[in-house]
Design brief:
By secondary structure, the chain is α/β, with parallel strands linked by helices. Helix content is 36%, strand content 21%. The protein has an eight-stranded mixed β-sheet with strand order 1-2-6-3-7-8-11-12, sandwiched between helices. Strands 4-5 form a two-stranded parallel sheet. Helix 4 crosses helix 6. The longest helix has 16 residues. The chain is globular, with a radius of gyration of 19 Å. The protein starts with a strand and ends with a helix.
Length: 320
């Protein structure tokens, strides 16, 4: 069930003042006031707070009764990124003055309004993983462990370039988001998975290859559940990720966090390539951090963390 909590007198990194803002969220598993350890989940680019609990829960293969993140043991909290449109809220022309660090701060401040000051785990995939980095850099004592899946602590030039193209496509009007989504699907999967899935087959009814009808389907599907304003904001948001900004370096930003850091890289990820996670792991080890690098070997590309649930359970089972 979607609930709301209000934060007040919030100042963004840009200087934008937000007198009051309602954040929507959902809780799964044990109640927040039960004394159970709390896991804060950060959703991905086109995700939302519906983590589990029904057939549409996007991480229902990882978070469930008796699962890796066991809803019989943990309280699971997930906020909607304000501006993703799931609860009807959009930033309008203000969107460019909001950054990823602001969102991480909003989530932690809202959690405190709900009575949660310390988390067992912060976990997120893709943009959600980036927000985990931002949260532990801003609030180094907020959690015992951080799990970053297919994400990074900074927006690389590669990620920024993809986002810039997306934003240009969005500006094309009615079909801009449709076409932008078609493009990103190729970076969320991999050449191996696309070739294996379609094998150059034809959609006889439409007279096109099945890869084309599949891309059209995903473009139309996003149009049906997402607004262009929300998509524009989310694409902007991912370009603002950088925990070293204003802190000197990655090392200076992350050194205060004393908890465990777990990164899950994906071998075929074209969006957040695994080699970036490996470099980060090497730096964390030089800092003598309690850091673990795990690798999801899958042909499915970036979206593998939403597909390969059996393997994800095997990788993360020892940490919950």
């Amino acid at each position: 069930m979607l609930e709301r909590v209000k934060i007040t007198d919030f100042t963004c990194e840009s200087g934008e003042k937000i007198p009051a803002l309602d954040l929507s969220y959902e809780v799964f598993g044990r109640p927040l006031d039960s004394g159970a350890p709390v896991v804060l989940v950060f959703h991905a680019l086109t995700g939302n707070s519906n983590v589990c609990g029904d057939p549409n829960g996007w991480w229902r293969g990882l978070i469930y009764p008796g699962g890796t993140v066991d809803t019989d043991r943990y309280s699971i909290l997930c906020f909607n990124i304000p501006g993703n449109g799931y609860d009807g809220f959009l930033w309008g022309d203000r969107y460019a003055r909001i950054c990823a660090r602001d969102i991480a701060r909003m989530f932690i401040e809202a959690s405190r309004r709900l009575g949660v000051v310390h988390f067992h785990t912060l976990i997120g995939g893709s943009l959600g993983g980036c927000l985990v980095w931002e949260a532990i850099a801003e609030y180094p004592e907020c959690a015992g462990q951080a799990v970053i899946v297919a994400g990074d602590w900074k927006a690389t030039d590669w990620v920024t370039a993809l986002s810039v193209i997306q934003l240009q496509l969005l500006a094309r009007g009615e079909f801009g988001m449709h076409d932008a989504r078609m493009m990103t699907m190729l970076f969320f999967r991999s050449p191996q998975s696309i070739d294996a899935k379609f094998s150059r087959t034809m959609n006889r009814e439409l007279g096109v290859r099945n890869i084309q009808s599949w891309l059209e389907h995903h473009g139309e599907k996003l149009q049906g559940r997402f607004s262009p304003d929300a998509y524009r904001f989310m694409m902007h948001l991912i370009t603002t990720v950088d925990i070293s900004r204003g802190r000197g370096s990655f090392e200076q930003a992350i050194r205060p966090f004393a908890g465990r850091i777990i990164q899950v890289g994906i071998t075929t990820d074209l969006y957040f390539p695994a080699y970036e996670n490996v470099r980060t792991q090497e730096e964390l080890m030089r800092m003598r951090k309690d850091a673990h690098y795990l690798e999801l070997d899958t042909p499915h590309g970036h979206d593998g963390f939403l597909i390969e649930f059996t393997r994800m359970r095997e990788l993360l089972g020892a940490f919950f």
